[in-house]
Amino acid sequence: MSAAAGPLAGLLVLDFSTLLPGPLATLILAEAGAEVVKVERPGTGDEMRGYQPPWGADSANFALLNRGKRSVALDLKDPAQRARLDPLIERADILVEQFRPGVMERLGLGPGQVMARNPRLIWCSITGYGQSGPKRDAAGHDLNYIGDAGLLSLGFGDAARPVVPPALIADIAGGAYPAVMNILMALHARQATGSGQRLDIAMTDNLFPFLYWAMGQGFATGRWPGNGDGLVTGGTPRYRLYPTADGRVLAAAPIEDRFWAVFCDIIGLEPQWRDDARDPAGTAARVAALVAARDADAWRAAIAGRDCCCSIVATVEEAMNDPHFAARGLFGHRLANAEGQQMPALPVPLAPALRGPPGIRPAPALGADNAAVLAP
């Protein structure tokens, strides 16, 4: 199945978003066969084009997030230029925007204004705090959203040296993924009703599913979890990161008793420490000492083929070269630029049958498709 013949083939997506949440959402739609037209400001375009590191004319980040899309450059504040979008708006199936609430209305492109002309349109807004509520106009980034939702409080490390999470959780799991999920459900509803919908995707709202266990504990017991004291945030010896002798890290997650017993045998934990309910801190300290006595290769060999839910934390480079992911075809799709360079395309959460066979596709140059897709 080629990308053009994917399950979303024939759908037109107008993408007014920038940076990460919206562009990742529309990348997923593009990889499933939709035609995505990226609407950018003249001159600079999407801010992500200028990020580091550069890869050809634009950044590697931009190329990874915008593979297979088309680009038009328009000054949306100019009524004449904005009018060139009219034919696209009238036949579009999906519109994705990421401005603060009210910006699209001021441009004459608000949902009420546009959906009056195209009532079948699925209009998707992605913002930090949503289209309503006291925080709707507040500026923020991922760190603010996960902080406001309480998620960050559960595991930020030593308060004297707090750790910033290594992933943009709100942007991806709170923004891009829910946007795609809701767009697909709205498209399904449109088949029955013939009408589009306005979708209000608030990244902070969508973080609360990550707090299911913390909510359960707090509401059921009145004792709310704190920094690093929960079952899956380091509050037990059975779910921790243990440094090895050579500066690598063992990810140990033998929560269940059957896995814990195997793990204890592998590391040689003495009987007095195996009942971790008696003295959790003491058990954790002894486990840490035993793990720290050997290097990562020794532990990798010791845990190989053993059911203990343990692994050596991989570097990004190691993960990219892992034979398992190669066997899965995860990096089979390719990204190209105008200079002839190639790299693996960004994997997206689509089943292979829905994404189509591997192929080489570029991200668009700024305004490359003005003549082809815009009215004169």
UniProtKB/TrEMBL annotation:
One of its GO terms (molecular function) is transferase activity. It comes from the Bacteria. The keyword Transferase applies. Transmembrane segments: none annotated. Keywords: Transferase. Gene3D superfamilies: Crotonobetainyl-coa:carnitine coa-transferase, domain 1 (3.40.50.10540), formyl-coa transferase, domain 3 (3.30.1540.10). Pfam families: CoA_transf_3. This is CoA transferase. It comes from Teichococcus rhizosphaerae.
